[in-house]
Design a protein that fits this description.
binds manganese (II) ion, eight-stranded mixed sheet
């Protein structure tokens, strides 16, 4: 598929991608746009439809999967056929000239724990005397409910959180800024079409409800987390901030990235069988510009379709704007680990950076970027963009 828009050679933002975002042109209010090459298309103007004049994707996402398909076809037509060029060209802005914001109003936020390698690594570090996996792990996608109100746009500064933790050998906890601030490289799935209470979403209805995919950095304070998480799970060690990428890549753009899911042993219960939504995404984690890891999403044990089926099997409903994230994406080898916790083995084996400095956990001023790409149609590439954040010093206590 070709377009009359000047898309740089090798760009992953060609007409096979067309991710949605929310942007503000200079001096103008936010609106919904589609990215093509290094430009963004004003959809309210191009399609003459006020649903895209909103400051979030939510009203459009709520219109449902048939409508998402129609709009995608219309946008492809506008950007492919020269006859539309004169009119549509006026609705394009260079991405560099606009401000990108949070693409959707986040309703509920769930975070999973679906990488076998990540779960085993964490189990070995946090519970060295036990089996790394708890007995439930291979039977259900383990997750927790997070804090949607602190899901922030890429680029939002991350203030080092304070909290309590217990130092090794101490009886009493200490209080202060976290000393073990970490990242988690994750893939997030965005619900467009809601479900009804007491009506579970089967694995094979995934694409009717899920609109698209973003990248997530689930910032984590490991010292706070380690002290608080027993027995109810992650809480303040996670809730201070989660960053997401500005472009929501629609599921339709990821057709060529669909692969056979990894074999699950034992076979899960019937409601978790099928729903082949494994995706061949390659993540890249950069610390101050230097690549420190390339986590393979293809290796995830539980798929997003299984996660959605599990999340609703008890009758809980999902809403437009719900975000559920995969859990840290980690592969089998060190260069594929999606957290500093694993990359430095809980701080015992520091990373050596190109400038000779070392890192265990994040320092003030550090900038972390998570990017990802997927195979596109033919030899093409789908770019998922990136999510970035810089650590600011803790507030005075
Ligand atoms: Mn996480």
């Amino acid at each position: 598929m070709t377009t009359w828009v000047a898309v740089p050679a090798g760009s992953g933002f060609g007409v096979d991608n067309l991710p949605y975002g929310v942007y503000s042109p200079p001096g103008a209010p936010p609106r919904v746009g589609v990215r093509i090459g290094n430009h963004v298309l004003d959809l309210a103007a191009a399609l003459d439809d006020p649903v895209f004049a909103a400051p979030t994707l939510n009203p459009f996402m709520a219109q449902g999967s048939r409508r998402w398909r129609t709009v995608r076809e219309q946008v492809v037509e506008l950007l492919s056929d020269e006859r539309h060029r004169a009119r549509v060209d006026a609705a394009l802005s260079p991405v560099a000239a606009v401000v990108l914001s949070l693409p959707f109003a986040v309703a509920d936020f769930v975070d999973y724990y679906s990488s076998l390698h990540h779960a085993c690594n964490v189990g070995r570090m946090f519970r060295p005397d036990e089996e790394p996996l708890k007995p439930n792990w291979r039977h259900l996608p383990v997750g927790y409910h997070g804090r949607s109100g602190t899901v922030v746009a890429s680029g939002t500064p991350i203030v080092r959180p304070a909290g309590q933790w217990r130092a090794p050998g101490d009886d009493a906890p200490s209080f202060g800024p976290t000393r073990r601030l970490d990242i988690e490289a994750e893939v997030g799935f965005v619900v467009g079409s809601p479900s009804r209470m007491s009506q579970p979403v089967p694995v094979d209805r995934f694409a009717e409800h899920v609109f698209g995919v973003v990248l997530c950095n689930d910032w984590s304070a490991r010292d706070i987390q380690a002290w608080e998480y027993v027995p109810l799970g992650p809480y303040l060690g996670k809730s201070f901030a989660t960053s997401i990428s500005p472009w929501v890549v629609p599921l339709a753009a990821l057709d060529a990235a669909r692969i056979r899911p990894v074999a699950q042993d034992p076979e899960p219960l019937p409601y978790l069988r099928g729903g082949d939504w494994a995706l061949d995404l390659t993540l890249e984690v950069r610390l101050n510009g230097e690549v420190v890891s390339r986590p393979p999403f293809a290796d995830m044990y539980w798929t997003a379709a299984q996660q959605l089926a599990h999340m609703t099997v008890n009758g809980a409903s999902v809403r437009t704007g719900d975000l559920f994230a995969s859990g840290t994406v980690s592969g089998a080898v060190r260069e594929q680990r999606g957290s500093l916790l694993e990359l430095t083995w809980n701080g015992t084996d520091p990373l050596v950076l190109a400038d000779g400095s070392t890192r265990t956990f994040l320092e003030d001023g550090d900038m972390v970027t998570i990017a990802a790409t997927a195979p596109g149609a033919g030899a093409g590439l789908i770019d998922l963009g990136d999510v970035t954040g810089t650590i600011k010093p803790a507030r005075p206590i």
